[in-house]
From TrEMBL:
Keyword annotations: Cell membrane, Membrane, Transmembrane, Transmembrane helix
Membrane association type: Multi-pass membrane protein
Pfam families: Polysacc_synt_3
Stated name of the protein: Lipopolysaccharide biosynthesis protein
Species: Selenomonas caprae
Intracellular or extracellular location(s): Cell membrane
Amino acid sequence: MKEKIYANILKVFMGSAGAQGLWVLSMLIVSRLYTVEDLGIQQLFISGASLLASIATGRYELAITLPRYRFQAANLLIFAGALSVFGSLLIFIGIIVFNEEMIAASGLKKLDVIFMPLYAIEICWYMLSYAWLVREEKYAIASKGLILFPTGYLIMCIGLSGIKMPLSSLVLSILLARGFEILYYAHHIINDLHQYSGKLSLTGIVKLGNEYIDFPKYLMLGGFVDTAKNQVIPFLVAAFWGTIATGYYSLATQCLAAPAGLIAKSVGDVFRQEASSLYRKYHECEMLYRKTLRCCALYSCIICGLLFVLSPVIIPILFGNQWEEAGRYIQVLLPMTALGLISSPLSNVYIIARQQKKYIYIQFLGFVSSAIGIGVSGYSGFDIEIALIAWGILSIGVGSISIYGGIVVSRGRCY
């Protein structure tokens, strides 16, 4: 079992490493072709779409690894996919009605706001596809898709640079790149679903939706709050310190997302699949949880220690002197990121153990820490770096609670 886990982690790690490497390369090129403000606008678009996507699926993507039989998971996949389309259409209608207000609040172009629901659907289908491939242990296919996304983004960013259009070039680039990734996943998943065509039915789809009703009941609000604690930050930064500060923040978080993505995708996804299997058999996974905790802690200390020392020097060299401020943002965000690299992959244990109610409280605390750290600091007139430090201190406390609670839940006491 140990050899299998490590082999699966290696597969996802290689795909994640390639994807993150390409993403960093794309940032190197984008930072030269586009302005700080352009990157800030893209970040606001992604954050808005991510907030919408967090509620569009009803959080059913988190349940796909749980059913005992594959045909049940297939029914659940179809249900969640259809639900995401319906949810995004409702959101689109809301955006059309309140279009002017959203443009004024976000600072985005009209078409950028209108296309948010489309990117939200793409995010939903990406999450559902990836969850299915993890359940089926098709880590190689999942990893290739991870690489395809930044590759498509890089090509589109270069091709669209300098072209004037109603839709922002970076926004269109990320829309098309995510679409390429989804088409690749769909090609493989449709073949899988064809095997269970005789067991797919409207009755089965509705039955699975009702069986896992706790996911939208408890996790939809929790998922929105969990997403909001990070994705609302760019809007607060733009409101208090301007779009240029949002651009610096965007580059800093994308640089930090590289190591975070490696651990979350390679360790976290394999942990979710293996822990789900253990819970189905033994109703506990404490040994696996503690082993994964030690693994994440080791990676976190090494990666974040190196970034803290090197980021102020490397950022201006790689991206240009105009991005030097982003290097200071990275240093400020690193302590919070270090703990997040540990707590984020392990938080899957709350879902696996059906402890959604408990996780909602942790997610709400995370959102409050964001609102207080950034919102109160900005309203009080403090510098953005002070605001990021305040947010980081509060987030470290929330992450520690999440890790300790995960240890208790992994013992199966609350199953």
